[in-house]
Amino acid sequence: MRSIVLATLAAVCLSGCSGPSAKTEEEAAGPVAPPAVPADPTFTGFKHDQKQDLFGYYYPTGEVKVGGKYKLDHLHIAGPIGFGDWVAGKRTKTYGPVMMEFQDITSPARTNALGNTSYSVKLRVLPTAYALNDEMVRFVGKDDKLGEVRLDAKIDAAALKTAQLKGKDAPPVITGALQVGDTPFKTVTFTWRGGD
C-alpha cells in the first residue's frame, strides 16, 4: 500500500515539473500581427514600365529594424542598363535592378567618406518578383536570415523630381507598406539620393 501511495505522489510531483505547455508558450508570445503586405502567390515575374528616371537609392526616413539586429539601409532602383542586363539574363548573386539592403547593426562598424556609419555585414535582398512604373513599386525577395521581404508602395513623381533637383533634404518620395519575415511595417517612407 505504501508503495502505491509513494508512486502516486511521485507521479503528481513529476507532472507539475513538465514545464509550460505549448499553448501557454504561444499565449506568452502574444498574437501575431497581421502582415503589412500579405503574400500574393499571383504576383510573379519582373515588370517595369517607367518613363521617369527612377535611378537612385531610397533611404527610409525612420528606423526600420527587424529582430533587434537588422536595419533597412535602402531600397535601390537601377537605371536603364541595370534593367536591360537583368531582362537579358545577365544576373549576378549580388545585384538586382530593384533590391533592398539591410545591415547587421551588431557587426563591426566604420565611418565612411561621407561620415555615415557603415556595418561590415550587409544583406542584399534580390527580387524574386517586382513591378515598377512611375507611380508604384512592388517587390518580393527572400533572404535566409530575414525571410520573405515584400514592399508595396506608391511613388510621388512630383516629389521625386523635386528631390532629384534639390538633392539632400528633399521630402519623402516613396510611401508604402513593408513586410520583413513576420515583422510588419504599415507605413514606411523613403527619401531619394542619387548615390551612396
Can you walk me through this structure?
- This protein has 4 helices and 13 strands.
- With 196 residues, it is α+β, with helices and mostly antiparallel strands.
- The protein has one domain (46-193).
- The strands form 2 sheets. Strands 1, 2, 3, 4, 5, 8, 9, 10, 11, 12 and 13 form an 11-stranded mixed β-sheet that branches. A two-stranded antiparallel sheet has the order 6-7.
- The relative contact order is 0.19.
Task: Spell out the blueprint of helices and strands.
Layout: H1 2-16, H2 22-29, E1 45-49, E2 56-60, E3 65-66, E4 70-77, H3 80-87, E5 98-104, E6 109-111, E7 117-119, E8 122-125, E9 127-133, E10 136-143, E11 147-155, H4 157-166, E12 174-180, E13 183-193
Parallel strand pairs: 1-9
Antiparallel strand pairs: 2-4, 2-13, 3-4, 4-5, 5-8, 6-7, 9-10, 10-11, 11-12, 12-13
- The percentage of residues in β strands lies in 35-45%
The oligomeric state is single chain
**String of helices and strands:** HHEEEEHEEEEEEEHEE
Spans where pLDDT lies below 50 across 5 or more residues:
1-29
First-last Cα distance: 81 Å
Report the helical percentage.
Answer: 10-25%
Number of domains: 1
